[in-house]
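SEQUENCE AND FOLD
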Amino acid sequence: MAESSNVRHTGSSVCWSGVKVTAGSKKNPKPILKGAGGEGLSGYVEGGKFCAIMGPSGAGKTTLLNALAGRRLPNFEGTVLVDGKEPDRRRIAFVMQEDVLCPTQTPREALMFSAGLRLPATVSLAEKRKLAGDRERPNYQVMTHFGAISQIAIGGMFGAAQPLLLSFPLEAALFKKEYGVGTYTATTYFAAKTAVEVPKSFLVAALTWLVSYWLIALEGPIILYILALWLMGFAIASTALLLGCLVPNVEVGLQVSPAVLVPQILFAGFFIKSEQIPPFLRWAQYLCSLRYGNNLFALIAFGPQETDSWDNSTRAEAELLLELNQIEPGDWWVNVLVLASIGVAFRLVAIAALSWRAARTA
């Protein structure tokens, strides 16, 4: 059991001793929660402290939490005290790993239902509604907006990459033929392809945000979202072009593409934070266009210039989100520069790879 830094509220201390849970018949009980040597578990958590209960699968972590929360357990033994007194089980709860809730209820309705049945009659309906709102409200606006822009970024990544992965290996055969007879060079071919592709990708980015921006009620100028998605699409398309130059056909390209695109989702900052990535893998995030595109979206939506009008709690959550994802408000130009560099560098490498393959074939 481990403790970490203080939280803002005082909280209640919890003490337990001789906690033991068994299953089966009384003649042949099977212990499912016990301490060393068969003794009951004992412990103490000071109020206002974070506490972690760690152990391998099946060690009894959830069973211990169920016992401390007062859930009905077969053959439970031991004593649990909150602030030195017998606890009121109706006032204790925790979020289970796989909780089961009514699928048609909103989070607020689920909390109101539990509060209405479990809190004592001395707590008024207005207080119950306030408690339910306090539990539901934290970072709702911030997290829903961050989830929405992350989803749009992921969709933009696949939308920019998949068409090129499907079409470019087929175009490569025509390029090799015309390159072999001296019709044009690889540089000329890529310059013409980029000139056609860039305006089209800007139109796709504009249509994407014209549909999504007002539906989500995002903060920040829409033109900045369009430009950020356009630049990210350019970098992703360059990655797809390089991959298309290296694979022999469409089938191989589709098989290899998940290894290039899916890791970018993990490094984008939505599902896991940068600090949770193993150190030996962190270098890969610097080649992931999705990460820098998502950083730009987050800066546009949650930057200081947008959150000044928010309440203190929501603004603090937005600042915490940027901090956890290691996004510095003043570094927007770094993300723009990296995306542009990835787009240009990968296209230059793609030109060299395609020229080499065409010359080798000839």
In short: The radius of gyration is 28 Å. Residues 1-9 have pLDDT under 50 and may be disordered.
